[in-house]
């Protein structure tokens, strides 16, 4: 079974409206308000849809997130049963500080086809190489870089690695520097970071490091449409995390997930820009309309869609 193609435009509308709602709060130094605007809008749009959706990757657990929490049912209870992963505002710091890269993101699959996981950190690696055993989470940094260098026929000093700038990555960064690899630091937004391996124009050969698990699942859904690799391993630090993971069916806490274990079958990924970024442009005002740009992946295709949002402009 495949997803109905008409769902694509409907989900573009969901992330576009969430992006627009959040865009009013860009640069207002209030991450929580910018996030809430995106969450409220996304939830209300999802609930208008003829779907039986369940949030499998969301804003956290019910006790910490009143909306779009993991397990929440969305849609008008008619239509296809879907698993839905959301990050209504990816890059809260970007939006609050009017910096490039804030996105509104959603990924969907048919029921039971998206990895269901609690909100924890994830060790991740993605490259533009689909072949197995070239780059692997279990290999050392040195082995990964040497293998990639050989595979792409590029010297290590001509390879670029993208990584979140965090103290927890100091050791990896030192190893990459010792190998002469170019480093592209990102301050937040590792859904985009992981997707920079998808096209030569971004000049990123490998993305790696520890970031949010939900962001990992979302990026994997998009990478599934490209001929790229992704592996992720959740880091369950507390007993609460482990208990919750167990309840969700995860028994092996150190399991390395391959792309096809994170997302199965047909899926749709939509990321709409709130502020301008590497992947898409942010919300723009054109005459009396708002314009959004969304990166969409479906099956083995990827395209961008520009939408005019019919909304009253508040000047
Ligand atoms: C990343 C990034 C997010 O969190 O997943 C990161 O994609 C990981 O968490 O935009 P830490 O900030 O704790 O390192 C964000 O930066 C914010 O959700």
Q: Can you give a write-up of this model?
A:
The protein has 315 residues and is an alpha+beta fold. It folds into two domains: 6-113 and 266-312, 2-Layer Sandwich (Fructose-1,6-Bisphosphatase, Chain A, domain 1); 121-262, D-Maltodextrin-Binding Protein, domain 2 (3-Layer(aba) Sandwich), CATH 3.40.190. It is built from nine helices and 14 strands. Strands 1, 2, 3, 4, 11, 12, 13 and 14 form an eight-stranded mixed sheet that branches. A six-stranded mixed sheet has the order 7-6-8-5-9-10, with helices on both faces. The chain is globular, with a radius of gyration of 19 Å. The structure holds 7-O-phosphono-alpha-L-galacto-hept-2-ulopyranose. Residues 90-91, 164, 166, 188-191, 211-212, 215 line the site of 7-O-phosphono-alpha-L-galacto-hept-2-ulopyranose (VTB).
Which SSEs are present, and which pair or pack?
Blueprint: H1 6-23, H2 31-48, E1 52-57, E2 73-74, E3 81-90, H3 92-96, E4 103-110, E5 121-127, H4 141-152, E6 160-164, H5 170-178, E7 182-186, H6 190-195, E8 206-212, H7 213-223, E9 229-235, H8 239-247, E10 257-258, H9 259-262, E11 267-273, E12 284-286, E13 289-298, E14 301-309
The figure for the number of domains is 2
The CATH homologous superfamily of the largest domain corresponds to Fructose-1,6-Bisphosphatase, subunit A, domain 1
Largest sheet: 8 strands, mixed
Overall 3D form: globular
Judged by helices, strands and strand pairing, the structural class is: alpha+beta
Strand content: 25-35%
CATH fold assignment of the largest domain: Fructose-1,6-Bisphosphatase, Chain A, domain 1
What is the CATH class name of the largest domain? Alpha Beta
Give the cofactors and ligands.
7-O-phosphono-alpha-L-galacto-hept-2-ulopyranose
Query: Can you count the beta strands?
Result: 14
Determine the fraction of residues in helical runs and give it as a percent range: 25-40%
- The overall pLDDT, averaged over residues, is 95
Task: Quote the distance from N terminus to C terminus.
Answer: 47 Å
Q: Which residues sit in consecutive blocks of at least 5 with pLDDT less than 50? A: none
Order of helices and strands: HHEEEHEEHEHEHEHEHEHEEEE
Q: What is the count of DSSP helices, taking H or I runs of 4+ residues?
A: 9
Radius of gyration over all CA atoms, rounded? 19 Å
